[in-house]
């Protein structure tokens, strides 16, 4: 409908005097098309306008809600570059090594905490992946199973991934005391929620023929999952778990903010107490680690996926 | 004729295809090795966490008590409920505004970092690396830094969400731009368009729907992150989340958590609807 309308509304100038395209704008049929096109465009334009108006109202409301104050920002904006400059160490070429040593005076302790951060992320990921793995088969819609069990599993997973991991950490710190244990548990629960969902989506996309085959030979539910489903999904699961590990390293680096272990506790102390150069030293360590993990997991995931394609 | 195999037939079959059943020795060794290494690392990690059984049992029994104390969720008083809802509104405002501002600021950055727009390798490299660095720092850390700059309050939170997302958006934009079709750009060039025309009429119509859907997705995920930045004093419901948990006001804590859950699922629903409206169901 609109297609023919567009044609009729386009003005063809033609490049020779004799060249007229066979569109007569006064032809009532074409005029009707043109009018229709114009009306439809009008409606579309109105929709855009209304959308824009709603958008602007949302922005204004948010600006009020977030106490946006351009004056205050303009007044204090210079503090941000100043802060960035302040946390940078003074590295003179003449005494470069000594300066570097002074900047990273606490390297041993920080490396230990960084290692603990990685271990928290690792153990949290493994525990979460195991939990997600166990729950994903009941959450998937294509493997039979009872309706209420599926509903219950899904809501449970949803709860686990919607509550931020640091909130779990806050509660666990009170229950278990300070240290890496609450951090691990918080990350494990959050990971279980996220991975259970992703895993169940992978399971829902499998080829159902092996499942039918297993069922036809008289296999039970467990045997069917073990021999027909798991071999199809394992490499995908591993790839998701690696991706999650990377996210969890970031998450574990801030667990220390609430006392749940890792490098975060030294970072928040440095920021709160204005140990300027320590802030940049720890931040660079974290960024470097995250980048390395990023790079490493990406390589591993590509290897896993190519393994999958070769099959 | 029976389909079932007799025991001797089965044994013969298994013997003939032993290799196929067992898989190659190499893969099995590698798999066993990887799994063993992972288990070893796991156990090593557990030993460094200073766990003892008593502490774990005690912790879980504490948790059980807390869960019982959390029920039923109760804000305490009506005035308190109003305070929580207001903080929730603040949280959503922080997420919304922070994402929108990040989306706007990242726009030029995305073009700078795209290989097919800026051919200069140095600019390209610098744009990419600086975005990676910004992205490597968590929003909660940015919140702490911004609190030092503009003081406590939601404004710092909004700036934190914005800063941490500029890097992510820039990267996504540049990828969308690099994946764009060359032909419309060439078309604009062929009718005599300038570089700016190329971007405006050749690239932007292609990348805008992708970008819009990404922005919506980020508003959704930022609602989650902005619920926690209040823990470090950067506005929103996080402050009450931390406060009620730390003062062991469990009923209020569970009320706040429920509020967060409800808000996140409403935003999820809305943004999904809008996303489908913008780019159609298939492309998601």
CATH class of the largest domain in chain B: Mainly Alpha
Specify the structural class of chain B: mainly alpha
Q: Let me know the average pLDDT of chain A.
A: 82
Q: Which range best describes the helical content of chain B: under 10%, 10-25%, 25-40%, 40-55%, 55-70% or over 70%?
A: over 70%
Q: What's the SSE pattern of chain B?
A: HHHHHHHHHHHH
Write out the CATH superfamily name of the largest domain in chain A: MetI-like
Work out the largest interface and the residue count of each chain: A-B, 57 and 63 residues
Structural class estimated from helices and strands of chain A: mainly alpha
Q: What form of chain A results from the Cα inertia axes?
A: extended
**Helix percentage range of chain A:** over 70%
| Total discrete domains of chain A | 2
SSE diagram, text form:
The complex is a heterodimer of chains A (311) and B (284).
Chain A: H1 2-9, H2 28-65, H3 70-76, H4 79-87, H5 96-103, H6 107-139, H7 147-162, H8 165-176, H9 180-204, H10 209-216, H11 221-255, H12 264-272, H13 276-310
Chain B: H1 7-16, H2 18-22, H3 25-48, H4 53-70, H5 78-113, H6 121-136, H7 139-150, H8 154-178, H9 182-190, H10 195-226, H11 238-246, H12 250-279
């Amino acid at each position: 409908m609109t297609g023919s309308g567009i044609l009729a509304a386009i003005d063809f100038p033609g490049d020779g005097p004799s060249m007229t395209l066979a569109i007569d704008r006064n032809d009532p049929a074409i005029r009707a098309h043109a009018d229709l096109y114009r009306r439809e465009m009008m409606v579309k334009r109105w929709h855009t306008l209304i959308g824009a108006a709603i958008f602007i109202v949302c922005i204004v409301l948010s600006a009020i809600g977030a106490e946006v104050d351009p004056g205050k920002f303009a007044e204090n904006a210079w503090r941000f570059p100043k802060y960035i400059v302040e946390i940078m160490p003074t590295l003179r070429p003449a005494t470069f090594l000594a300066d570097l040593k002074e900047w990273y005076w606490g390297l041993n302790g920080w490396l230990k905490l960084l290692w603990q951060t990685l271990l928290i992320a690792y153990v949290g990921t493994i525990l979460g992946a195991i939990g997600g793995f166990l729950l994903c088969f009941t959450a998937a819609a294509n493997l039979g199973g009872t309706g209420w069990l599926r509903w219950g599993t899904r809501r449970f997973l949803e709860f686990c991934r919607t509550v931020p991991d640091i909130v779990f950490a806050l509660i666990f710190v009170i229950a278990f005391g300070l240290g890496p244990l609450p951090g691990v548990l918080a990350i494990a629960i959050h990971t279980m929620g996220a991975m259970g969902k992703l895993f169940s989506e992978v399971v829902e996309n499998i080829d159902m023929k092996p499942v039918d085959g297993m069922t036809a030979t008289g296999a039970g539910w467990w045997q069917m999952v073990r021999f027909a489903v798991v071999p199809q999904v394992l490499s995908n699961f591993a790839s998701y778990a690696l991706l999650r590990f990377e996210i969890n390293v970031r998450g574990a680096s801030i667990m220390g903010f609430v006392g749940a272990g890792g490098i975060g506790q030294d970072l928040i102390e440095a920021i709160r107490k204005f140990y300027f150069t320590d802030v940049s030293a720890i931040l660079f360590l974290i960024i470097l680690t995250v980048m390395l993990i990023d790079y490493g997991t990406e390589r591993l995931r590509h290897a896993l996926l190519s393994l999958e394609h070769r099959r | 004729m029976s389909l079932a195999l007799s025991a001797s037939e089965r044994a013969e079959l298994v013997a003939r295809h032993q290799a196929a059943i067992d898989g190659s020795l190499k893969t099995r060794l590698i798999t066993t090795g990887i799994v063993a290494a992972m288990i070893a690392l796991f156990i090593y990690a557990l030993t460094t966490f200073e766990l003892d059984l008593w502490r774990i049992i005690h912790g879980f029994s504490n948790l059980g008590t807390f869960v019982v104390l959390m029920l039923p969720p109760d804000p305490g008083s009506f005035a308190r409920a109003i305070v929580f809802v207001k903080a929730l509104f603040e949280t959503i405002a922080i997420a919304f505004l922070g994402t929108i501002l990040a989306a706007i600021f990242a726009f030029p950055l995305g073009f700078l970092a795209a290989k097919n727009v800026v051919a200069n390798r140095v600019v390209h490299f610098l744009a990419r690396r600086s975005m990676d660095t910004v992205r490597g720092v968590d929003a909660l850390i940015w919140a702490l830094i911004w609190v030092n700059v503009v003081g406590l309050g939601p404004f710092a939170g909004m700036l934190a969400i914005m800063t941490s997302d500029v890097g992510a958006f820039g990267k996504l934009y540049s990828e969308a731009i690099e994946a764009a079709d060359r032909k419309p750009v060439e078309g604009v060039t062929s009718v005599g368009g300038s570089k700016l025309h190329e971007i405006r009429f050749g690239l932007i119509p292609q990348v805008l729907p992708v970008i819009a859907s990404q922005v919506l997705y980020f508003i959704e995920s930022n609602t989650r992150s902005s619920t926690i930045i209040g823990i470090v004093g950067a506005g929103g419901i996080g402050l009450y989340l931390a406060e009620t948990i730390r003062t062991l006001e469990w009923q209020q804590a569970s009320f706040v958590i429920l509020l967060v859950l409800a808000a996140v699922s409403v935003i999820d629903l809305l943004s999904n609807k809008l996303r489908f409206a913008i780019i159609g169901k298939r492309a998601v």
